[in-house]
Amino acid sequence: MICRANSGHPGGSLSATDIITVLYFHKMKHNPKEANWPDRDRFVMSKGHAAPVLYAALAEASYFPKEYLKTLRQIGSSLQGHIDMLSLPGIEMSTGSLGQGLSAANGMALAGRLDKKNYRVYCLMGDGETQEGQIWEAAMTSGHYKLDNLTAIVDCNGYQIDGKVDDIKSINPLSHKFEAFKWHVIKCDGHCVKSIIEAFEAAERIKGKPTVILADTVKGRGVSFMEENPLDFHGKAPSPEEKEIALQQLCKIVFDDK
Amino acid sequence: MTNEKKLIATRDAYGKTLALLGKENPNIVVLDADLAASTKTILFKNAFPERFFDMGIAEQDMISTAAGFAACGKIAFASTFAVFGSGRTWDQIRMSCAYTRLNVKVVVTHGGITTGEDGASHQANEDIAIMRAIPNMTVVVPSDAVETEKVIRAAADFHGPMYIRLSRLATPVINDNEKYKFKLGKGIVLKEGKDVTIFACGIMVGSALEAAEKLAEENIFAEVINLHTIKPIDKKLIIESSSKTKAVVTVEEHSILGGLGGAVAEILVENNPVPMQRVGVKDTFGESGKPHELLVKYGLMPSNIISAVKSVISRKK
Asked: Using a CB-CB distance cutoff of 8 angstroms, which residues of chain A are in contact with residue B77?
């Protein structure tokens, strides 16, 4: 998808792939045949540049034909470079300007509480994204309103465009920050399905406060040359040759889908 | 005359209407950023505390949270002062509300220079310009308490993002509650004339009427039009009226850059170029002072409108 578009964000998509997979194919109540089902769980992809992994999951779940994936970032395509909720079914919020998704997720969680609905709201952020001030305004809101129907996930891949998050402007320890904002914090291995599932299940059991899962991830996960060179592959497409190697490596890990 | 008219701030009309709407429509939620007593959303808060959310001093969070509510089918009214509700939150309004066409009504108070004593930091003179530049946005500036009530009701019925700009200052009620009808995007001819058209919005509509009365004493007959909706602008009416009068003055309590004057100029220059002058705050920041003193100092009095009218008439061919 990204190779064909010759632009996009492979690194941060791959670091979030296992989390998104667990959400869409194990954890969340949702119905691709009725995308606007009022009782569905909501997922907000606050790191909107990781659009490709969300598009892949939505296509796999049959929200739209997989053929669409070939049109990523092309003119006239419904697969916009960053997520646009109006162009595809199954998308809860448009994102791309970092830092806004958690606030929107809070609004959804508050609306669910007001309407006495049982749905849960999930919000995925990048670790670099937590440098945005609005994340902490929102974190304060979730904590203040005790939003236990909200689970946030931070995809802690350790990198942002200009370098390592710790070198650019360290946000660590994130756990202490969220705890100070009245959150329950869980850590998990963001590439171990069992660990991710356990974290989501533990989050659901926490009452009276929101839960954040700090998922330890690897940028470019599953593709050797991206893992080795995560900075190069934040916002750069692989070449056709690189794509072949990447797909072979990913297929070896997951399944033979070609 | 204006000084005999009842004085009500448009923000007061907002709070009262919101509380009434809350009863009529359980789908309405209201968010504020620690200014409920000033924006008057407190009237809704007192009536429907479970549907009121104080987001604290966090305007950006407020707007995106409102978008989240709207994504779940709520009609979300979000209020703060105009300067914060437009500038500080511009990206959130653009991204979370306008790009998404979500049902968020950003209703701001303390628009313009009559915010007064708080000074330049709190006087929004640029908000109309930056809000109308965003695709999918509807921008409305009501002229008095009567119009505000109708606008707020229309906002609740209209699906999509809106920016509604209100004032702190108590200003004359110029519309007749019984007869007044609001139609989004349709300007209102308040006074017919043949020599010049004065397009005004917000609290300056009353000043435009006052100026027109004085001009009539000098046998200059001004058509006064209330262009409450800045976006989508009433292009048809602008062209029709300016074709008749062949001279235009715009009046707004906002910078002359990019607001009502800018919107009208864009229509005229492409469709019916006639002599035009903008009355508004020049390209400058305001300062502390009493609202009336500021209106005088920054050139927003009926006398300034009269000078502008005479100037454009003198430029007619």
From this structure: none
The domains of chain B, with CATH numbers, are: 2-172 (3.40.50.970), 188-311 (3.40.50.920)
A35-60 burial, b if ≥16 CB within 10 A, otherwise e?
beeeebbbbbbbbbbbbbbbbbbbbb
B33: enclosing H helix or E strand: none
A-contacting residues of B 22-81, CB under 8 Å? Answer: 29, 50-51, 53, 55-56, 58, 60-74, 76
Query: How many CB atoms are closer than 10 A to CB B174?
Result: 23
Domains of chain A by range and CATH? 2-253 (3.40.50.970)
User: Across the interface, do B68 and A97 touch by the CB < 8 Å criterion?
Assistant: no
Confidence of residue B1 (pLDDT cuts 50, 70, 90): very low
Separation in Å, CA of A256 to nearest CA in chain B: 37
**pLDDT classification of A257: cutoffs 50, 70, 90:** very low
**What ipTM did this prediction achieve?**
0.96
pLDDT (average), residues A190-198: 97
Q: Does position B3 have pLDDT exceeding 80, yes or no? A: no
Nearest of B159, B96, B73 to residue A104 by alpha carbon:
B96
- For chain A, how long is the longest CA-to-CA vector? 52
| pTM of the model as a whole | 0.96
